[in-house]
Amino acid sequence: MTATPALLEVEEVGTPAPAGGPPTSTRRILTTITKDKGALACVLFIVIVVLMAVAAPLITKLSGWGPYQFDSAAINSDLGGVPHGSLGGISGNHWFGVEPQNGRDLFARIVYGARVSITISLSATLLTGVLGVVLGMLAGFYRGWVDTVISRLMDFLMAFPALIFMIAILSSLPAGNRPVLLVVVISAFGWPYLARVIRGQTMTLANREFVEAARASGAKDVQVVFREILPNLRGSIIVMTTLAIPGYIGTEAGLSFLGVGVSPPTASWGQMISSSVSWYSVDPMFFVIPGTFLFLTVLSLTVLGDKIRSVVDQGEAA
Amino acid sequence: MTRYVIGRLGGVVVILLAVCLFTYLIFFKLSPDPAVMICGKTCTPERIDSIRDVLGLNQPILTQFWEFLQGIFAGRDYGSVHCSAPCLGYSFQTNESVWSMITARLPVSITVAVGAAVLWLLAGVIGGLISAIKQGTWWDRTAMALALGGVSVPNYVLALVLQFVLVVKLQVLPFPSAPAFADNPLLWFESYIMPWTVLAVGYACLYARLTRANVIDTLQENYFRTARAKGLSRSLVLRRHALRPALTPITTIFGMDFAGLLGGALITETVFGLNGIGKMAADSIAKNDQPVIMAVTLLAAFFVVIGNVVVDLVYTTLDPRVRVTSS
Amino acid sequence: MTADLFVVEDLTVTLPTGRGPVDVVKNVSFTVGRDDTLGIVGESGSGKSMTALAVLGLLPRGAETSGSIRLEGKELLGRSERELQSIRGNAISMVFQDPLSSLNPYYTVGLQIEEMYRAHRGGSRRDARKVAIEALERVHIPDAGRRIDHYPHQFSGGQRQRIMIAMALCCSPSLLIADEPTTALDVTVQAQILELMAELQSTTGTGMIFITHDLAVISSIAKRVLVMCAGDPVEYGTAEQVFSDPHHDYTRTLLDAVPRIDDEVAS
């Protein structure tokens, strides 16, 4: 099972209900992060990856090779397609070397792979966030049959073996618009974990005195929800969405590794790792480079998310 | 109490029915011609027709579903083949009843799950406990940093690295082949140790962080302070007034994680070539063997939902505040 | 004056904070005799709880203490953890503010009393159980023989505090420290608890330190009073002295802040 649901599940138990203090200010989060060297290193790496994703075409123009171009000169077809030179063919021409057999520039594919990872995980996080927060708040605030329907839906979705189901759905559907499909499928199984936490906290908050006070001064339901309850959920929302991103990056990479993610020739780190398996005795760099990028990206985001969570926790405990 | 249990089991049945129906609809409605997919790659038109007949694919979808449900309890005939209860379907590609395929492979998945669980519980809980007691020291900081790293490695990457280093390069271990324990204990251990480790690493890191956080919180609790003020010995204080409250919430999480693993660790089994439920799921998906996919989904969902009920019941015995009150 | 059972001299407690070490208790001195009650009064943050924790060696990690704390002539400061364990609950007991969170929710009240008794007096579980039942009866918990197997959440707030007191006294300590024991309780329950503590003190002769921010409570039970403000001991004397003729401005402010029934109401 990939990290997504497990991470979110576990973090859920650790998330405390909002205490009486003021909502965590974004400013406090930012100041804590800028003071911590480890966190800054993580931010730096993430910025690099995001830049890769955003400016992929520009970067590959500078490096000289696109992700779909074949360079047969770089591989030794007599030896079955092994790249020339050591370290998988790293040279001034190909900064990360080339892929065996087809000679595609690895640097370009890493950069475009970043694009896939970032867009899919961010979109999935956004969709999960919206669904999870809205449905969670509705269930927690209105209770009654609204809560019953939404909770049963959550139980139903959480009972599914998400990975098996995602693979099965993705492999039985035609190649269509893969990224959109991935985002939808990942979010469909991801939102209940966020919604469950939001629902619990909304129920606690809805009973607090300040909500009663707002109601007493004539506020309508919508206003109560958005002005009184939502700001107090901010801490949990920030923590859980930040920690969801690396989980979804892992999920997308895992699905691509199994061959049901983005369709070739689109580059994806997971798919590259999968292809590298048969080559790792002669060209280990083909495995090491995407593997390292995947690991470091997930690590940086997890470390950041963890630091943000400790800031939020301290704020709530105050 | 019995009323509560019956109510929960009723809920289990409802959810499983819903999962079953949903899965059935997805697979048999989504593909234009299920019979073609079920038949597999090398298939004659006659066989496709006979599959369509036998499975009653021309009937309305709910009738098909009803027949499937009946089959689970009463057995079912697929043309000349009889599939005895519980009949979770029949694979026309392997020519076996799905249930017998499952029972053949379930022991492997269970072995993987149990071994990994033992490893990750020991490593995670003990590691987290030590970190909490030594909070702030370099041991704590290093352990937590490693835990963050362990959580961030995708398990297939770790699996590949382990396999490459230990099997190919250093040749300390053979390629896993999962014999029965009775036949060859050494090979059994050598086969399972890598998948156990790969699965355990991710969970152990999560559990270490969770245990540490729980224990640290418990050490701040008022009742912990009271226990110290009573002059109890350090070991008694830690055992009764820190460990017990800190670890109780972890048991629920563990129950759910373990239940999830019983449905098969798809990626780990596939990478190591272990013939468990997970690998069967992956292979069936690649071959479009719908009946098998359906059954595996149902099985995994079953474990999760039952696990949920078991965990809740166990929790009522552990935490006196949540005893189920008889009406 | 009864022989000085418990003497604190020039106690100073320093805690490490983000902004450097801070003295939370500065040169505090007082004595408590047998059958004597000292009231320590002050607002939040005055250092009164820290003083109590310092006595039992329960300060947070990194805290530094100096001065002298003597029980029956023997110095307590600087003792090893093991020696302190034999003193806590045995010679000096403590009762805390919130009885719900101060009792372990996972164990029966009987077990929590028994474990304390057996830690200091040994003996079998059966003997300890008898002691525990007696302890509950002494604090007037009805049906003690059955309720001993109940969990903390099955009792009311007032009952829980009685259980805490019973637990604290089960090993017959010479000194009982009560840190805001009635603050979390309703007023009527408060009165009952105070009555109970007075009754127990008269039968056992235990010295008592009563920490609170509530002057009314102090006036009803304390023989001597120590007023603390931001770590400093600003006033120390008998109750009559402090209430009728306070020396320090802060004490006067505290006394003035108490609303009186014969005050004029602003029209």
The whole-number mean of residue pLDDT values of chain A reads 81
The count of helical stretches of chain A stands at 12
Number of domains of chain A: 1
Q: What is the CATH level 1 assignment of chain A?
A: Mainly Alpha
Tell me the count of domains of chain B: 2
Kindly provide the name of the CATH class of the largest domain in chain B: Mainly Alpha
Helix content of chain A: over 70%
Number of strands of chain B: 4
Helix/strand structural class of chain A: mainly alpha
Main sheet strand line-up of chain B = 1-2
The CATH architecture of the largest domain in chain B would be: Orthogonal Bundle
Amino-to-carboxy terminus distance of chain A: 36 Å
Biggest sheet overview of chain B? 2 strands, antiparallel
Straight-line distance between termini of chain B: 9 Å
User: How would you sum up the global shape of chain A?
Assistant: elongated
Task: Provide an overview of this structure.
- The complex is a heterotrimer of chains A (318), B (327) and C (267).
- With 318 residues, chain A is mainly alpha-helical.
- Chain A has one domain: Orthogonal Bundle (MetI-like fold), CATH 1.10.3720.
- In chain A, 71% of the residues lie in helices and 1% in strands.
- Chain A is built from 12 helices and 2 strands, in the order ααααββαααααααα.
- A two-stranded antiparallel ribbon of chain A has the order 1-2.
- In chain A, β1 and β2 form a beta hairpin.
- In chain B, α5 packs antiparallel against α10, α7 packs across α8 and α9 runs antiparallel to α10.
- Chain B has 2 domains: 97 residues, no CATH class; 227 residues, MetI-like (MetI-like fold, Orthogonal Bundle), CATH 1.10.3720.10.
- Chain B is globular and about 80 Å long.
- Chain B is built from 13 helices and 4 strands.
- Chain C is α/β, with parallel strands linked by helices and 267 residues long.
- Chain C contains 11 helices and 10 strands.
- In chain C, α7 runs parallel beside α8.
- Chain C starts with a strand and ends in a 10-residue tail after the last helix.
- The chains are: A mainly alpha (318), B mainly alpha (327), C alpha/beta (267).
- Chains in contact: A-B, B-C.
- The interface between A and B is large, with 45 and 56 residues.
